[in-house]
Here is the input.
Amino acid sequence: MKTCENNYFQQKHSKEMRAVQDSMDVLNGKWKVAILSSICYYNKRRFSEILNDVEGISNRMLSKELKELEVNKLIIRSVMDTQPITVMYELTKHGKSLKNIIESLSDWGIAHRRVITGK
Here is the structure.
């Protein structure tokens, strides 16, 4: 009986670890969560607005990261029929499923800063 129980928990743990790794592969890197946070907070964002929100990111890197987020079906890129042309980014339904995670990361970051700085 113990062997069956251990095997079940081992398989469950393995599945959970694989799921965490899959999540990290999609959200990999220094910028993706910050970009998603910028878009999530305002619902729709222009390239320049995201660039201003994400401190330290270059135009080239933002463009690359946005393309990867689009490939992973987390954001939609919409070209508006304006002069000059405006490009808007918004979360997909799938991308919106990250909202609670982003909010939790934000809350944790605020609390962590307080612990580290003592304020």
